[in-house]
Write a structure and sequence with these properties.
The complex is a heterodimer. By secondary structure, chain A is of the alpha/beta class. Helices cover 32% and strands 26% of the residues of chain A. Chain B contains 10 helices and 4 strands, in the order ααβαβαβαβααααα. A 4-stranded antiparallel beta sheet of chain B has the order 2-3-1-4, covered by helices on one side. Classes of the chains: A alpha/beta, B alpha+beta. The A-B interface holds A 49-53, 71-72, 74-76, 78-79, 83, 89, 91, 93-94, 98, 102-103, 105-108, 150, 154 and B 21-22, 24, 209-210, 212-220, 223, 303, 306.
Chain lengths: 227, 306
């Protein structure tokens, strides 16, 4: 599903923030990406959710060569990827419901066709009574769940989560991990970037990659039990 | 009738539902932008009003003068005035393409002189030129050069005025005013385009984060540009309507203060009632220009991003 081959990345004319990154994500897999702050986790995710092109090397996503993909052909690819951003990136002037509707709205799908599904999803993540609240009035945990609901509402093939438990208490962190596991069981390929080693240790069958100073190493291939 | 109003209401409701769903309106920049576009639309309305009025009146005047020529007989010693007129009428009526010819009565001639001489009765021994009003037959095309030649040969003091010079000067005057107004309209549209380009870029910069999120969740450029288009559609319509209404009120006030005949440009040259409905085109034009400009600007800005 995702293949990186000797990928390097730099911002503008700056130094290389990722060097010689090579890995492969199989369809239906779950993996963790750990590393200290500034190591390059978010930059690697930016490449994966097509916010940036690599400076060198090759990236293949869903069989498409990202290096040469025309920008007009990016949207269909991006619709197959759900992203939970580290800072949520919810639209503050829109309600939780409208935020979650966004990925479906941009496809031009008729609103009446998905509205009940979105309400159901929000209820499932425990926000049934907060659907009409705007992000500034939501707590960190609630925002996190809205961001997750937005990332999964279009049933993406690949889910990328950047520090999804960074703003929530450990108990909610475990609940969110269960949510990701559930999605993975339904066939979504998942990659979670985190500082939280306890979270990684709970998912023993997941692949674990570590990044430091822009270089990636595989710590563990998938095996073991689920939490 | 009730059904008609129900349709209108439905249409207005639908129109009101067309709004940007994703990009929030930029409150801070809202009223200055409305003000500038409203001023542009006010100027465009005035220019349009002048163009329509001038072309309308010029057409009316030309139509009044078409099919009519005037023969002026100046008093001469070698022939009595009555003989001059009789001879002239004889020649005119014998010319093919002439429907009728009649001497302008002395009272009418006195009315023509009244603006210069006042309401006085002229002594009968003062020789004043006499006029013959000649009507051309519909579709008739008399040889006016030959007629002029025959009249001047046979009737001393006869002069033919086919109003060509007056019509030509009137046409040139109307044409110049129209050209000026059209040039002003072009400049106003160009200035509006520049304003909307600037405002769209500012709105896109203010909503950079939203645009990036929309891109990352799979929105196409057309969708994002559409959001900005809708915003500028309403700005153009609202501001255009304000500008056109203010211009209409001003033109109407001038018309009323000028004695109800609207003759404030020149005598007989005022705003005609047909001009006012045409001013409704201005908000539509403003909305169209705003929407197209916002779309092209947004697409160009988005095209520079990944």
């Amino acid at each position: 599903m995702v293949r990186f081959e000797n990928v390097g990345m730099r911002y503008g004319m700056g130094p290389e923030v990722l060097r010689d990154i090579s890995f492969k994500l199989e369809t239906g897999s779950i993996s963790f990406l750990t590393g200290p702050s500034g190591a390059g986790k978010s930059s690697l995710l930016r490449l994966m959710y097509l916010a940036h092109r690599p400076s060198r090397g090759h990236i293949t996503m869903f069989g498409e060569d990202v290096n040469v993909l025309p920008r007009a052909e990016m949207p269909p690819l991006r619709r197959r990827i759900g992203v939970v951003f580290q800072e949520f990136r919810l639209l503050d002037h829109m309600s939780a419901l409208e935020n979650v509707c966004l990925p479906l709205m941009v496809t031009g799908a008729p609103r009446e066709g998905y509205l009940s599904d979105v309400r159901e999803l929000l209820t499932w993540v425990g926000l049934g009574d907060r659907m009409n609240a705007t992000p500034p009035t939501l707590s960190g945990g609630e925002k996190q769940r809205v961001a997750i609901a937005r990332a999964v509402v279009a049933q993406p093939d690949l889910l990328l989560a950047d520090e999804p438990t960074g703003n929530v208490d450990p108990e909610l962190g475990i609940k969110l991990l269960r949510l990701f596991m559930e999605l993975n069981r339904m066939g979504t390929t998942i990659m979670i970037a985190t500082h939280d080693m306890a979270l990684v240790d709970r998912a023993q069958d997941a692949m674990h990659m570590h990044i430091d100073q822009g270089q990636l190493s595989v710590v563990r291939m998938s095996e073991g039990a689920l939490p | 009738m009730t059904r008609f109003f129900a349709y209108i209401r439905q249409f207005l409701d639908r129109l009101a539902a067309i709004r940007s769903a994703v990009v929030p309106p930029a409150d801070g920049a809202r009223w200055p932008l409305h003000l500038v576009i409203a001023v542009m639309c006010f100027l465009a309305s005035i220019a349009l009003g002048i163009t329509l009025t001038v072309s309308n009146i010029a057409e009316e005047w030309s139509a009044d003068l078409a099919g009519v020529i005037t023969v002026q007989i100046k008093p001469r010693e070698e022939m009595a005035m009555e003989d001059q007129i009789a001879r002239a009428l004889e020649i005119i009526e014998a010319t093919p393409g002439i429907a009728s010819a009649a001497r302008v009565p002395a009272t009418s001639a006195a009315e023509l002189l009244e603006p210069w001489l006042g309401a006085v009765t002229l002594p009968e021994d003062i020789a004043v030129p006499q006029l013959i009003d000649v009507r051309l037959a519909p579709g008739g095309d008399p040889d006016l050069t030959a007629l002029t030649q025959r009249l001047t040969n046979a009737v001393p003091g006869a002069e033919v005025d086919d109003h060509f010079r007056w019509k030509a000067r009137l046409g040139a005057f109307a044409g110049s005013l129209e050209a000026l107004a059209i040039a002003a309209l072009f400049l106003i549209v160009a200035a509006t385009v520049a304003i909307v380009v600037f405002a769209t870029r500012a709105a896109m910069e203010a909503n950079r984060e939203i645009i990036e999120v929309l891109h990352l969740i799979g929105a196409r450029d057309k969708f994002i540009a559409g959001e900005f288009q809708v915003q500028f559609l309403w700005v153009g319509l609202r501001a255009g309507l304000i500008g056109a209404v203010v211009a209409a009120v001003l033109l109407l006030s001038l018309t009323i203060f000028a004695g109800g005949r609207g003759e404030f440009f020149l005598p007989g040259l005022g705003v005609t009632w047909q001009t006012y409905p045409a001013l409704l085109l201005v908000p539509l034009l403003a909305a169209g220009v705003s929407v197209m400009t916002a779309r092209l600007t947004a697409m160009s800005v988005l095209g520079q991003r990944l």
